[in-house]
Write a structure and sequence with these properties.
Alpha-Beta Plaits, Structural Genomics Hypothetical 15.5 Kd Protein In mrcA-pckA Intergenic Region, Chain A, 6-stranded antiparallel beta sheet, alpha+beta
Length: 247
């Protein structure tokens, strides 16, 4: 059975549970997983579907099913937020790497936010994380639980390094070249090796189009976003504005 089918089967079980108990929630989902759930479950009438990542604009969210007659939920019961105090400058990869080193699964962690430096996790893991997450990068960290007050506690700020260039087409391999300074052959090699995701889904097709708004991820190199696809240069090439996420 494919991973997507396993996910949808699990979510179907959650919907059935919500009908009986009032509320049921998944672990944190990638944007691609959330989209597959939307396509499958938004037409149900016995359970309302809500996506929430703990704050407005969250990228990683939980699928929350509610019995429309009596179900409800409290964000504080579904999300724990830890603010991080650290002496050195840390990025998304530093925090995520330190969390994964604790032996927990990626879907137990929601967004990692830069303003303020914080992350969201499942409440049932908050005690373990608070006790064991003491280092990231080369320095020590201190965690402070912060309350969820609507959208006041957190705001999503994308810290991007801007790169501009031109390409002959919007092929994925060409876009990776702009984002990460790769040759076309190296980009193709990474794609065919299964190290590249397009819009949060594995992509092994170098010629796949990566248009405006596309998110590109390369395992070991980082993540970028196509911010703007402009007009044509005098030589007929396409102007591209790319944002590289902080590492």
């Amino acid at each position: 059975m494919e991973q997507k089918d396993v996910l949808l089967g699990h979510v179907d079980d959650l919907a059935a549970k919500a009908v009986k108990s009032g509320c049921a929630a998944s672990r944190f989902l990638t944007p691609a997983e959330a989209q597959s759930i939307i396509a499958q479950f938004t037409r149900r009438h016995d359970a309302a579907l809500i996506f929430d990542g703990g704050y407005e604009g969250a990228e990683r969210v939980r699928a929350i099913f509610l019995n429309p007659d009596w179900g409800k939920y409290d964000r504080s019961e579904l999300f724990t937020v830890f603010k991080i105090t650290v002496q050195e400058t840390l990025g998304h990869r530093d925090i995520l790497g330190a969390l994964m080193a604790l032996g927990i699964e990626r879907n137990t962690i929601g967004d990692i936010i830069e303003s303020p430096l914080a992350f969201i996790c499942l409440p049932e893991l908050s005690g373990y994380i608070a006790e064991n997450f003491t280092k990231a990068g080369r320095g020590s960290v201190t965690l402070h639980p912060i309350p969820l007050r609507g959208d006041e506690a957190l705001c999503r700020v994308e810290n991007l390094t801007i790169r501009t260039d031109t390409v002959a087409s919007l092929r994925l391999d060409a876009m990776l070249g702009i984002a990460f300074g790769l040759s076309r052959s190296k980009a193709v090699e990474l794609i065919e090796a299964g190290r590249v995701s397009l819009n949060h889904e594995l992509c092994t097709q170098p010629a796949k189009e990566a248009g405006e708004g596309a998110v590109l991820s390369v395992r070991g190199l980082g993540r970028a976003k196509v911010l703007e696809v402009g007009g044509l240069s005098k030589k007929g090439r396409i102007f591209i504005k790319m944002g590289l996420y902080g590492t």
